[in-house]
Amino acid sequence: MLFNTVVLFFITAIAEIVGCFLPWLWLKKGGPAWLLLPAALSLMTFVWLLTLHPAASGRVYAAYGGVYVVTALLWLRVVEGIRLTVWDWSGALIALCGMMVIVAGWGRA
User: The whole model's pTM is what?
Assistant: First the structure.
């Protein structure tokens, strides 16, 4: 269950990042306007994926936020080729630890 939830969080984060990155390419980097179509589809997928999360609650979205931080940094490294610093990796680790604390408490609240 936990593994499936974390995988769903990562897939959701990728859909959100792609949906925001493509318009950014169009606006800031002079990319073609057709990038807006896959961006819109990606954001629609993102919203649909949110409906698959365990519950629509602040706890779920707070936990998702930790995974989003890590995914965004990985995107920065892999897609944009920007070298991450020890501060980036440390922040990602802290965000993931926070996510795990929140998830561990789901059944106890």
Answer: 0.85
